[in-house]
């Protein structure tokens, strides 16, 4: 069933969009990632203009993350205090990101720079998570109890705060900085930033994996809502029809994802997310390598 998207100005199969929304919703509920890193490239692939894909996807992330958070609230796996600290950093980062995005736009080549950011971030993070998860699974199978690092350089920083749900007593500086980085990415790349935040919360802050997912989703809701608002009011690129179809699929999918995530071990969740990140990175890198002819022809056309 074909539907016409007024802002994107293309016709797309409605069931395809529902399916994509559902897939990203499942990922959101399972891993605590908004799913934008996967959905935004998928929308490019089915013919949605990049500007519309980025703005509308931020809108869809809000809904699927909200649905996922509700499921985690029921299980009490959301650290509200940590989420609030991350959120403050996230809003500052989103505002900075909009400034950076406008600068890149004025320089030109913003699409290429955004895609290169995706490839670098996804490649590094996916690779590190994959190696770490494999080692954790090996140790578990060998019967070795993994030692949790109780102290690192973070514990020497000032402005400490107690995060009871996570069982932590650490400085607020690292969570604020993680939030700022995620906010910048949300504004520039149209992503929730969960693929950066989840590993940072596990490995840098030392939070328990089960609490990380719900807390990540809590922060993503507000940062992506803020980003969507900025896109809608400055670029007018939020396609309501596209957003609603992705939204319906995402909300349903997030509930299933939260149930699946609760049944899997922490190491299995991390290795699945790592594989997903590496897969998207490979696809984007391949597209960049296969498209130089088109980029040159665009440059030549712009010169006339």
From TrEMBL:
Its main location: membrane. It is a multi-pass membrane protein. It is found in: Cell membrane; Membrane. This is Probable membrane transporter protein. Belongs to the 4-toluene sulfonate uptake permease (TSUP) (TC 2.A.102) family. GO terms for cellular component: plasma membrane. Keywords: Cell membrane, Membrane, Transmembrane, Transmembrane helix. The chain crosses the membrane at residues 12-35, 82-104, 116-137, 176-204, 211-234, 240-260, 272-291.
